[in-house]
Design goal:
This protein is mainly alpha-helical. The protein is built from ten helices and no strands.
Length: about 220
């Protein structure tokens, strides 16, 4: 006795799947980009604050990193914004972007904090002796070096953010997994629905993975 595969029942759901794919990509790109910028700023801030505040700042960062992404999603979704902030609660999509972006930010901040330690102090001292201001040193020496150090790990995390974006379905975001859940419940074809989801994520993730692998071989990334 063999399983009777039937993907044709999902034909009416393809417009919903396409909208779900677009929403998945949108959430992933916005949260990864915003979270990375925030993380770079946060990691740099940890380095310029007074020494006595370094340990509390790192503990705070570690606490945020320890919180599961699913918990962050529920926190932003159920938080009483009207009571504490006097604003209208954001949409589920915004809640997903905030949760994913925060996860990206604290991870990036930790990478940046560690990368600053590995920047050549001799190069920095040489730049200072030439009269460069601290802002110029950060812009032209420290930040480029930090980016070269952390970029391979960041790319891997961006791909992870794309895959983890499916958790947004638990708060009602109508991305790919949400559509698959609805379609499988209506058609009683769970296996086919999840095969479709798997194929969609392979199509989304595999080109990024191969591109990242080639980029890691680039001369610019290896230059110090």
């Amino acid at each position: 006795m063999s399983y009777d595969w039937n993907f044709s029942v999902f034909a009416p759901y393809w417009p919903a799947f396409l909208r779900g794919i677009w929403l998945t990509v949108e959430i992933s790109v916005v949260s990864a980009f915003g979270g990375t910028l925030a993380g770079i700023a946060l990691g740099a801030l940890y380095r310029v604050i007074p020494l006595r505040l370094h340990k509390p700042a790192l503990i705070f960062n570690d606490v945020l990193r320890a919180i599961p992404l699913l918990v962050l999603l529920f926190f932003f979704f159920f938080f009483p914004y009207q009571d504490y902030l006097g604003i209208k609660p954001p949409s589920p999509v915004i809640c997903a972007i905030l949760a994913l972006g925060l996860s990206q930010a604290v991870f990036t901040a930790d990478l940046v904090y560690a990368a600053v330690e590995r920047v050549s102090q001799r190069t920095i001292q040489g730049a200072r002796s030439l009269g460069l201001q601290e802002t110029a040193i950060w812009r032209y020496i420290i930040l480029p070096d930090i980016i070269r150090q952390i970029l391979p790990t960041l790319i891997a995390f961006w791909i992870g953010i794309l895959k983890l974006s499916n958790l947004a379905s638990v708060i009602g975001v109508q991305e790919v997994v949400f559509v698959a859940q609805v379609a499988s419940a209506q058609e009683f074809r769970s296996l086919e629905a999840w095969v479709i989801v798997a194929v969609i994520y392979v199509i989304l993730v595999l080109p990024l993975t191969l591109t990242a692998r080639e980029f890691e071989k680039s001369a610019w990334l290896k230059r110090r």
